[in-house]
Amino acid sequence: MAGGNAIRGTRVGAGPMGEAERGEAAPRHRIGYWCSQGHETRVAFATDAEVPEFWDCPRCGQPAGQDAQSPPPAPRTEPYKTHLAYVRERRSDADGDALLEEALAKLRARRGA
Predict the structure, then answer these.
(1) How confident is the model at residue 14 (pLDDT cuts 50, 70, 90)?
(2) Which residue has the higher pLDDT, 2 or 25?
(3) 3-state SS track over the chain
């Protein structure tokens, strides 16, 4: 049997609210974006807002453009590089050999060899 509580199941803001209480909504238009996977995303913008050229697809995360026939290509992901790979980009093998010989010479001098 239900109790006599008249506000049971309600919460703040649950009543009928219309534009009279919230104010008028800004005029909007919906722009379609398509990613390279063929997903369509429709985003609502205010009519006076600047519309971005690209939008991230919420389904796959790839960039999406406004042209359905030629969406932007998927970004090329670089493989993970180790510290050694970055060092080899900056230094040639000859530079590395020279640095190694210099470090070994200092070590030998400290040890007295």
Answers:
(1) low
(2) 25
(3) CCCCCCCCCCCCCCCCCCHHHHCCCCCEEEEEEEECCCCEEEEEEECCCCCCCEEECCCCCCEEECCCCCCCCCCCCCCCCCHHHHHHHHCCHHHHHHHHHHHHHHHHHHHCC
Q: How many residues does the chain have?
A: 113
Token pair for 107 = 């070590």
Cα–Cα distance for residue pair 80/29, rounded to 1 Å: 41
Q: Residues with Cβ < 8 Å from 11, sequence gap 6 or more?
A: none
How far apart CA 55 and CA 72 sit, in angstroms, is 10
What is the spatial distance between Cα 41 and Cα 32, in angstroms, rounded to a whole number?
6
Q: Average the pLDDT over 27-37 and give the result.
A: 94
Tokens at 113, concatenated: 């060899």
Average pLDDT score, the chain: 85
